[in-house]
Amino acid sequence: MCMKKSILMLAALLSCAVLSAQKVTFPQGQLPYDNPYAFGQDLSFVLSAEKRGGVWYDTDGTQKSPWKIFRDHGYNWGRLMICNEPSRLGQTLDYVVEGAKKLKENDIHFALDFMMSDGWSNPMTQPTPSSLRDMTHKQRVDAFYGYVHNVIKTLRDAGVQPEIVQVGNEISNGAFWPDGRVYYGPEKRAQSHWKEFTDYIKAGIKAIRDVDPRIGVMLHVDFGGDLEMSEIFFDKMKQYKVGYDCIGFSFYPWSHGTLMDLRDNLYYVIEKYRKPVYVIETGFYSVPSQYFERKGIRAAFPETPEGQKQWFQAVNEIVMAAPYNLGRGVFWWEPMQRGRGCFDDQTRKAKPILEAFEKYAFPLDRTDGNPRIWDFEEGERP
Fold this sequence. Notes:
Blueprint: H1 2-21, E1 38-42, H2 46-51, E2 56-57, E3 63-64, H3 66-72, E4 77-82, H4 93-105, E5 109-114, H5 137-157, E6 164-167, H6 194-211, E7 216-221, H7 227-239, E8 246-251, H8 259-273, E9 277-282, H9 305-320, E10 327-332, H10 358-361
Parallel strand pairs: 1-4, 1-10, 4-5, 5-6, 6-7, 7-8, 8-9, 9-10
Antiparallel strand pairs: 2-3
């Protein structure tokens, strides 16, 4: 037993020595009051809600645009999704350009989510876009490259280039089904098309890099609390040489585990793959839902406006505590949705969730009137 303890202690000391010997650099361009950690919202449907004539109110009752309400409460990132056209959801390239300009006007960082379909895509459905169906695999790969390249170039030329781009939405089970379908269960695992699937992902990544290699590429999967599925997926990405920059997880309490499961999965994934990690989607109801209260099942927090806020704060605390400072942010899905959005369904007044991160995000600017760099002589004033 003593020998075993000695070996473990020696291993720990060696690990510390290795870590301490690593070169440490700070992120260039990161300044006070402009921390890039993401307090995010998926804002894909805000523009369409505004066009329907909706009005919204801040916590003090002041009428404002949703974009301004989010920013005024410290939310600094917005995600917009884009669908292949013709889009059943209205998330066209023109719509995204317009939405991205709203983000820029309100000083909100921009993350783009390629749905890789004409409408919804998630682990239960990853339909091939109608415009790409009657093609060979290679033709579809080439067409997807061209589509992604055109989208990113158009956004760049419009002055609203995204900083992070997801190639696919919750692509745990592949994309462009059936050609790019993958499986996890032992009965069907051998039927997986990992090569075909990763051909599409690599084509999208290459298109992004060819426009601007500075854009961060995210792979978004849904199993935020599942260590085994995380390992299978990201080991396959390594096997097929998919070059990406960061990982995005969805984590919903009715689907993906407990907060402890999230904590353990983030720790394991960061330790093994050493990539920045985001919880790019989470959500919780502020009214009794079909998942918990209406079923008589206890959730981590009450399904109330305050409980909704507490959920988002708890998820964020786990991400912020992730190893090596590689937990990089959290995003809410979806702020305009009834029951789990950020506004009261009847009054459209902002709910407590919008105040979830003010203790970290405020103040938004320096308030002492002095410059950051004080190179003046005594008695001089800027």
